[in-house]
RNA sequence: GGCGCCAUCGCCAAGUGGUAAGGCAGAGGUCUGCAAAACCUCCAUCUCCGGUUCAAAUCCGGAUGGCGCCUCCA
């Protein structure tokens, strides 16, 4: 398996530290607001990686943290007059709502920063002992000059950073680039007792402390969005490797951004769309398909048109799955005459995903299967085990859809599920109209039949007449 | 100013040396009462200019055009 390693800026053969086992740490969210679609992409990307590595038979330990204390949380809790704790709890709950709707697997561990104050303090003390940290008036800073190799992940060097100098000057720091490991708390702020007085952790230290606790000094993959490379991940390396003297992660994996209409989406630009808003009229699997149909490192441009394309594409796959399940008609066979074909497709899928999680190429395999299946079903060949073969292919489609989080719904449920907006016809109403239309059709009253079909079409319902009756689905 | 990424059909998007995957849209056809879905056929030489090579979208140099990080950020 090849994975692109941000550390060396090239694809490298991936070999787990311990055979058969993989440890992954992905930086999670700061819980002070609802998640936006940029978070969704990152979450989906690492969910796919997690699922796929498990699919390949690895014993995966996946850790994703919650940052539940920081400036933004404190500020917002003050604005709203609620405690930082209540605010964090609220948004952790909201996070789970979105996560479940997106069908994200729960990581093995989801540690919170404030549950690891002891570990954080221990780590800061260790850095202090090693001369890599110094305390000033209750604050503790990282002493960058004493760490060799700062900048190896982001490709920056200390001199350039100093001359770039958009760093605020703080006389108490030995160097402008030294960053906070522990922050002295101001009056009224949340704080924990420490050797340096009442305070709270700095921005980066939690990830070093928690990854060490759950995955050890060195683990296989560390991930996050590209924007975390500097300074967050760079500082994590300084902290963790400074303390342990060992490499933090063998592979660094970073996902690309989500742009909205060609522009970077960010909090500061205010052009972000929350997962919740999007899911009001977009099926969660459509969002997943949208994410997975591009390579995880490329930027993706979010727009209504692009999501519509994703919906149309996914629908095609579900149409095939639907046909397969109808043909199988409840048959559940273990093997069939299609086994060889299925195995060939499986190898194609694995080859795509083994190449740096090339989910876009993997999607092409899904479409290839879909195409061949439709052709096969259309041909109406007399084949002894057609239902058995259909059930095997259907199961296989779901097997390779699973790592991507696709095709896990019942086709009818997916196809008949609308955008979710109000004013739509219920299934019962639709089916009543279909009965009326069928009556008209048997009477060869085409005008009436078409009137009903047009009526349904206006409501976003599409009909499909076939030998065994009329199927319906909603436009997505 | 420093560091880095990208540029493939109308749109989305794979492809890192051997002669352009896939999806959406479009054109024609089959099927259908008509449709829808599906199937068949058609639909790009890879921003530009040089170079390396028997061979380049793929490597090197340059140009142009996008973008990111250097500040909170997935």
Itemize the secondary structure elements and their pairings:
Layout: E1 2-5, E2 10-13, E3 21-30, H1 37-55, E4 59-67, H2 71-80, H3 84-101, H4 117-129, E5 133-136, E6 139-142, H5 158-164, E7 180-184, E8 199-201, H6 205-215, E9 219-225, H7 229-244, E10 249-255, E11 258-260, E12 263-264, H8 275-279, H9 284-292, E13 300-302, H10 304-328, H11 339-354, H12 359-379, H13 386-401, H14 411-416, H15 427-442, H16 446-458, E14 461-466, E15 469-474
Parallel strand pairs: 3-4, 3-9, 9-10, 11-13
Antiparallel strand pairs: 1-2, 5-6, 6-7, 7-8, 11-12, 14-15
The chain binds one RNA strand of 74 nucleotides through strand 3, helix 1, helix 5, helix 7 and helix 10.
Overview of this structure, please?
It is built from 16 helices and 15 strands. It has helices at 37-55, 71-80, 84-101, 117-129, 158-164, 205-215, 229-244, 275-279, 284-292, 304-328, 339-354, 359-379, 386-401, 411-416, 427-442, 446-458, and strands at 2-5, 10-13, 21-30, 59-67, 133-136, 139-142, 180-184, 199-201, 219-225, 249-255, 258-260, 263-264, 300-302, 461-466, 469-474. The protein has a four-stranded parallel beta sheet, with helices on both faces. Helix 10 packs antiparallel against helix 13 (386-401), helix 11 packs antiparallel against helix 12 and helix 15 packs antiparallel against helix 16. The longest helix is centred in the middle third of the chain and has 25 residues, at 304-328. The two termini are 36 Å apart.
Provide a quick synopsis of the model:
By secondary structure, the protein is an alpha/beta fold. The protein has helices at residues 37-55, 71-80, 84-101, 117-129, 158-164, 205-215, 229-244, 275-279, 284-292, 304-328, 339-354, 359-379, 386-401, 411-416, 427-442, 446-458, and strands at residues 2-5, 10-13, 21-30, 59-67, 133-136, 139-142, 180-184, 199-201, 219-225, 249-255, 258-260, 263-264, 300-302, 461-466, 469-474.
